[in-house]
Design brief:
Organism (chains A, B): Ficus carica (Common fig)
Number of helices of chain A: 11
Keywords (chains A, B): Cytoplasm, Transferase
CATH class of the largest domain in chain A: Mainly Alpha
InterPro entries (chains A, B): Glutathione-S-Trfase_C-like, Glutathione-S-Trfase_C_sf, Glutathione_S-Trfase, Glutathione_S-Trfase_N, GST_C_Tau, Omega/Tau-like, Thioredoxin-like_sf
Function (chains A, B): Is involved in the conjugation of reduced glutathione to a wide number of exogenous and endogenous hydrophobic electrophiles.
Radius of gyration of chain A: 17 Å
CATH topology of the largest domain in chain A: Glutathione S-transferase Yfyf (Class Pi), Chain A, domain 2
CATH architecture of the largest domain in chain A: Up-down Bundle
Strand order of the largest sheet of chain A: 2-1-3-4
Oligomer: homodimer
Shape of chain A: globular
Number of domains of chain A: 2
Strand content of chain A: 5-15%
Main location (chains A, B): cytoplasm
Number of strands of chain A: 4
Largest interface: A-B, 21 and 21 residues
Chain lengths: ~220, ~220
Amino acid sequence: MSSKEEVLILDFWGSPFCMRVKIALNEKGVGYESREENLFGGKSELLLSSNPIYQKVPVLLHNGKPLSESSIIVDYINETWPSPPLLPSCPYEKAQAKFWVDFIDKKVFEAGGNIWRSNGEALEQAKQEFIEILKQLEEVLGDSDFFGGKAFGFVDIIAIPLTSWFLAYEKFGGFKVEDHCPKFSAWIKRCLQRDTVAKAIPDSEKVYELVAQLRKMNGIE
Amino acid sequence: MSSKEEVLILDFWGSPFCMRVKIALNEKGVGYESREENLFGGKSELLLSSNPIYQKVPVLLHNGKPLSESSIIVDYINETWPSPPLLPSCPYEKAQAKFWVDFIDKKVFEAGGNIWRSNGEALEQAKQEFIEILKQLEEVLGDSDFFGGKAFGFVDIIAIPLTSWFLAYEKFGGFKVEDHCPKFSAWIKRCLQRDTVAKAIPDSEKVYELVAQLRKMNGIE
């Protein structure tokens, strides 16, 4: 990285979407500054002006130019700092990876939210749906080390941060991911052994506290 | 295109998502076969086996290898047949285009659906939201000929098919897009002058009949 480059993340420690950006930059060996946003108080002027459409973290400011939406940011990082590549070069394999990125984006966080936001019957259903989604992902993973095959790649970067919320889902849902998806659970452990991942992912107990706080704010129990 | 290539679309004439694939192939000068699916009767075995996750059109089978999710397919087409390019080569501009593709994917068709699926108060609100989204797109378009600037490109391909449903929204919603978004309306007309677009987009009256049928099937009025 040239010494002139400015790489700033408008960040929130508990956001899986922010973690994606940090892991991608770590994988590329790109240094960055992180500026923590106060999502419960007031968002910064810089966040509001950089992402006027969604007003959400993460925003990546690269030499002052803003980017938003985490999967798009990770793609940008991959193109801007090509080594090591996070996507296959074959267009078909790349499209397959993008398909699963899109699947994960559409399904996992929302299904998890349905667990911690609900009780009783609705909770049971949310749990079933969540496990079903993980089973689909487990099938894609198969016996590979990573979604990218032997190498940790784009799909892994998109998926692994979401697992930092799993302890909270497990505690509020009364289940264990490992009991249903052993290979997926092994993949989580494998990813967390990477420095690039470990230093971007917060402690699950701390995330659990955050989710407990969100439940209170949503008037649950 | 090599004469050995097989390019098959599992298609439905009224689907804006299928239209995207056809426009992209037309822009690239790639010949294709289209196989119409019976979405209201039974879907083909080929569709179910090619897209087991969503079981939806469009599917592109390129030399027998299936791809799904229209924006991902258009990206694949752009990479597989590089000329003419549909995206800017600059990673930042490419990310901006991808941001708007994602925005359009998340917002426009759903907001339109909220118009034809509702009545009374809900319809009024749906209409306001729909117009608001188009105004945001109109602002992005500015005084350019296309979302891609002077050249018709990726964002245009993603957006223009959705406008084939606008007459239905207008008729069921009692409004005119042109009254609210004159520049966006001019962009629609400009796109429809392209052969690559015109031959992939059905007559709006025919789409209106389809939406009327969908309303009946949904028990509306």
